[in-house]
Every structure is written in C-alpha cells, then in structure tokens.
Amino acid sequence: MTEQYILKKFSETGALLDGHFLLRSGLHSPQYFQCALLLQHMPIAEELCGELARKFDAKQVDTVIAPAMGGLVVGQEVARALKKRFIFAEKDDAGKLVLRRGFTIQKGERLLVAEDVVTKGGRVVETMEIVKQHGGIVTGVGALVDRSNGAVNFGAPFHSLISLQVVAYEAANCPLCREKKIPLMKPGSK
User: Fold this and answer.
1) For residue 189, what pLDDT band results from cuts at 50, 70 and 90?
2) What domain range includes position 73?
3) For residue 184, is it within any domain?
4) Which long-range contacts link 36-41 to residues 24+ away (Cβ below 8 Å)?
C-alpha cells in the first residue's frame, strides 16, 4: 500500500482539507487531515487500520489503547485486526486524559497506542503516561498520519501509514494570519 494510494483515499473522502487550521498542537497549518471523514467508510477504515496493524507483532501486544476522540476508530480497528482488547483514554472535566468506564491496565500488560494523526504527539505522550502510571508497558505507537515526517520520538517503535512534513507555523509566525485572507478554523473534535 503506497502513500499515494492512502492520500488518494483521503482526497476521495474529503478528509484532506486545505485552508487555515489551528491544530491541537497550537500550530497553524494550510492542510488538515480530518480522519473522521475517511474513517466513516468502514471498508476503508478496515483496510487502512489493518495495514497499520500489520506493522506490529501481535505477540507483543495484549491491548490496544487510544486517546479519544481522534484515535477511537483507529484503535478499535487496529485491535480488531490484531484480535486484541481495545480500551481508550478520554478527557476528564479538567481536559486531562484519564481511564474511565471501568477500563483497567494490569501490571506488565503490553499496550499499543493507536492515534489518527500525530504532529507533536501530545495526546500519544499523555496516553503513554497513563499506561505507565498503571504499570503497563508501551510496546509501540501507530498512527495513520505522521505530520512530523519521523521527527517525533516516543521511546517505543513508531509506525505510520503516511509520514510527511506538512507545513505548520507557530501562531506568531503564521503567514496565513498576516495575510488575513483565510479565516483560522479549528476543525478537530473539540
């Protein structure tokens, strides 16, 4: 499966957006991957997440965990492909990721963290901290899209389907803000 094929799937489903976007990382970008638009098509979700799952050794994974919201479908589909349990971390009232809904992590349990898009990896790192706090071991991180072009380092094997350097700016240096032609949008889940 080539990056061109995957990018074509994003384009065909309207999931690759052009404009002026505020990313969760705080950066501004002229491109945005709205994975929910791609993943609403279950045959595509199954195909792409299955391909991501094949990048990991199922024998090294007991459970797949994902940060909500973006990682939910990716995590569930990767877990399905690996035939493993799936849990997720979600925001508490203070906006911090936590385990809820009775989810538990056993000491020594091996977890794979799944996410839709990684730019700086903040939600992945928060999820990894939850795993460690509960005595689990992060054996890998998987994402559909790595916007850092391999620059992020999670201290665990990291695989993505697409790895590219998408232009992103600090807010103070954003030429799109200076031009004031395209309004800033925050299309993420929250």
Assistant:
1) low
2) 3-179
3) no
4) 36/70, 36/73, 36/189, 37/13, 38/9, 38/10, 38/13, 38/144, 39/73, 39/74, 39/77, 39/116, 40/13, 41/13
The whole-model pTM stands at 0.89
- Domain annotation covers residue 185: no
Pairing relationship of beta strands 16-22 and 28-33 according to DSSP bridges: antiparallel
Say if 188 falls within a structural domain: no
The enclosing domain of 121 has a CATH number of 3.40.50.2020
Q: Confirm whether 187 is domain-assigned.
A: no
Helix axes 72-82, 42-53, angle to 10 degrees: 60
- Residue-wise pLDDT tens digits, 95-131: 899 999 999 999 999 999 999 999 889 999 999 999 9
Taking alpha carbons only, the member of 83, 90, 66, 77 closest to residue 140 is 66
